[in-house]
Structure formats: C-alpha cells, structure tokens
TrEMBL record:
Source domain of life: Bacteria
Name used for this protein in its record: ABC transporter ATP-binding protein
Organism: Ensifer oleiphilus
SMART domains: AAA
Translocase keyword on record: yes
Swiss-Prot/TrEMBL keywords: ATP-binding, Cell membrane, Membrane, Nucleotide-binding, Translocase, Transport
Length: 377
C-alpha cells in the first residue's frame, strides 16, 4: 500500500462549531502500525473516518501515494469502497445468522472470488487467529475475544491495503485485551498490513505501535516512536497524558510555586544559568529514588527532603507517595521499601531525568543537551 498523506486536513461540523480536526499533517508509511492516541473528543476517530472516506474533509487533502482521494479544492472524493481499506469498529458487527466461516468469507463472496481461492484465504486467516475450530458456530456462541478475532479475520481475508481499527479492544476484559494486543502485534508482523489504530489507552499505543500520533483538541501534539513519546515528550500535555503513574510536574508559578518547585528552580539556575524562560519541570516516577541518609544521595542530583505518606503495592512494584509542606511526589520502586508512614526521606533524581518545559508548556530542547551532558560525581 502506498504512503497515506494528510495535508492540512480539517473537519468542521458547523459554521459556529469548533474544528473537530484542525490543519492535520500526518504521514502513514507502508507497513506501519500507527496509533492515534488521545483523550475522548481529541479528533482521533474523526481522523480515522476521514482516512476511510466515511467523513468528507472540510479543508486540506488526503493522498494515497500520488492519488488524491479527498480534496475540496480539487473537487475530488473517492468513496470508501474504492479506497481498499478494511475497517473494524468497537462494535464487532458480525452477522448473527451466519456461521463463523461465513462471516469470515463474507467480503470475499461479495467480490466473487473463485471458491478455491476463497477457501484458501479463509483457512489461512482462521488458522492464524485460532478460530478455525469454531467455523461452524454462530457469533452468539463465542466469547467477546473470539468475536473480535472473527471481525479481524473478516477484514484480513479480503487483504486490505490498510486496516483501520477504532478502539476494537475496549469491550474486552483485561486478560483478553492483553491477549489481543499480542495477537495484533503478531498479525502485523505476519501479514505486513498497514494498520491505523485509534485508542485512548496509552499502554495499547505503547505496546502495539511502531509510530504514535498524540492528539488533543483536534491538533497533532507529537508524532514519533513509543520511546520518543515517552522519553522526550514535546510538551506538557504529552508528558502528562503518557505514563502511569503520571509524571510529577513542578510548576514555576511565582504566585503559587511549591517548596519542591522552588528547590528545582534554584537547582537549575545555579547549575545551568543559560536556561531562561522555564515554566515547569517534569520527573517520571521511575526516575526518582530515595535514601534515608544524606550521604547516600549521589552528588549532583536534584534532591530534597519529604515525608512518606503512602506505600502502595501494585504487585511487582511499589508506589511511594511523598509529601512536603506544599507538594506531593510519586515514585516507583521494584525493591520492597523498608519504610514507615511518617518517615522522612530524601528523594533524588539525576539531572538527565528532568524534563524542562517553557511557560507555554513546550519542551526546551536546549535544556536536554545541558542536562544529558551533566556528569554526576
């Protein structure tokens, strides 16, 4: 499948309404697993529907390779059935009166494929998705996870150039969601299909995607690999949206700066006087450590004293809640904390673990270079 390009794509549902999608530039390469990630109402499903042809653009254009498929300026609109894309909704939309095999080969029958080729394709995808043993059953006789596999098999059987998935796992329980994530990862590798996956679940995006596009209020906030999104968030929105527990934010607001934020501001200004216009600093919970003795804190670290107010086990790790007079920090540890509630500890983080944002919430890239070049003694 050629590369899909959205250039200045815009969608508006009325003259007086805000844009559902605004000036979106997005490139989806052949064989890519692209996740559109963001909160409800951010425009990710609208974007998927515009790619599919279920929504007309209000502005901009969509190209598949060199072919324009939607452009108001050029007066072009290619209908969904001619875009060679498969769409799987949150609702499985299986035919209740057809067997699993007939549901799977439904699209192939519409295309009037020869019987031998149709049966070979159906058998391949049913075996790949482990539903061949259910071929004579009906959808009502299957679990939610099995029905989801049938919906995917029906799309994969017609071998679409692009597979569009609109939150297909949201109806499944935790265990089935985990299994289906692994299944989708394997299918992407085996069939090499371009996949565009809409989700509000950051872990689905992080574990599945080769590329993540984070959206908010109809605009693209950042696009990159899962590691890029997590390790180098482009702004505070991305930093705070991706991560669990969420990132700790220290805001340098002169009217309400917390004591820990003041310590961070003093730490940065004394070590890196060239930095200007800092609005806030973020620290991932796993980047924080603690010590009960001052001499155990590595020199050069950003650190401070706080009180342990919560020890929360999560199974394989623990979340510590630390409080000062005007701030709360969370840190995670994989070692059983030998601490008591009310005990005073020193938190610390290496300078390269600090994410520095300006007053508009944008990442200060100059700070990255300075902080990463710092040497802890």
């Amino acid at each position: 499948m050629p590369t899909i390009n959205l250039r200045g794509a815009q969608k508006n549902y009325g003259v007086n309404s805000a844009n559902a999608v605004s000036n979106l530039d997005l490139e989806i390469r052949d064989g890519e697993f692209m996740c559109l990630l963001g909160p409800s109402g951010c425009g990710k499903t609208t974007t998927l529907r515009m790619i599919a042809g279920l929504e007309n653009l209000s502005g901009g254009e969509i190209r598949i390779g060199d072919r324009v498929v939607d452009s108001i300026f050029d007066g072009v609109f290619v209908p969904p059935e001619k875009r060679e894309m498969g769409l799987v909704f949150q609702s499985y939309a299986l035919w209740p009166h057809l067997t699993i095999e007939r549901n799977t080969d439904f699209g192939l029958r519409l295309r009037k494929l020869p019987k031998a080729e149709r049966e070979a394709r159906v058998e391949k995808v049913m075996q790949a998705l482990d539903i061949a043993k259910y071929r004579d059953r009906y959808p009502s006789q299957l679990s939610g996870g099995q029905q989801q596999r049938v919906a995917l098999a029906r799309m994969l059987a017609v071998n679409p150039g692009v597979l569009l998935l609109d939150e297909p796992l949201s109806n499944l329980d935790a265990r089935l969601r985990l299994e289906m994530r692994a299944e989708l990862k394997r299918l992407h590798k085996e069939f090499k299909t371009t996949i565009v996956f809409v989700t509000h679940d950051q872990w689905e995006a992080m574990t599945l995607a080769t590329t993540i596009a984070v959206m908010n209020e109809g605009t693209l906030q950042q696009m990159g690999t899962p590691n890029d999104i997590y390790d180098r968030p482009a702004n505070r929105f991305v930093a705070e949206f991706v991560g669990s527990p969420p990132i700790n934010i220290l805001s340098f607001d002169k009217n309400g700066t917390s004591d820990v934020a003041k310590e961070a501001e003093a730490y940065l200004s004394s070590r890196y006087p060239s930095l200007r216009g800092i609005g806030s600093v973020g620290i991932r919970p796993e980047a924080l450590s603690y010590a009960t003795r001052k001499e155990d804190v590595p020199q050069g670290s950003f650190s401070g004293k706080m009180v342990v107010t919560g020890i929360l086990p999560t199974g394989g790790s623990w979340i510590l809640e630390l409080r000062s007079d005007s701030h709360t920090l969370f840190l995670t540890t994989h070692a059983l904390p030998r601490l008591e509630l009310g005990e005073k500890v020193r938190f610390f983080a290496p300078p390269e673990a600090l994410h520095v944002f300006d007053k508009d919430g944008q990442r200060i890239t100059e700070a990255d270079k300075l902080l990463r070049s710092a040497k802890l003694n």
